[in-house]
Input
Amino acid sequence: MTILMVVHNEAEYAKFSMDSIRMFADIDDLSVVIIDNHSEDGLSRWTGEQEDITYVYMDEGKQPFGKILNEVCRELQPEGDLLIMDPHYMLTPHGLSRLQTVVYQKMQLGGFPTAFRCCKGRQICTIMKPLLDGGTRCAPRRKENGFWAFIRL
Output
């Protein structure tokens, strides 16, 4: 599985998110790609010190979310499952294996987006819908308060 995290001036959030991935990742063959969407907050310095992260810098300036994902997928050609993770969220125990279980229960399901949004600032609502039927290109719309999508490649 490959985790893609698009970050723009959110280094602190990305660090906390990576801590949760390191702590709770419960699958083998996991790779993490942090895509820096032209940040100016020291993200490149921090990622350079990490041995378990692939770092991609968008040097053409800030780019649209879908364009970034499509370019990175085309260049890196990730194999296996793909998790698009917003840096504002943390992985929970057994989260990755549960995502895989949901997708692989029905072989015609290519993935699902899980959009998180705050409801009245107190609770988090989760919405899951089928996605892509096995497709390999991804161009999800980023939600105001965060986005995750799990895609079987």
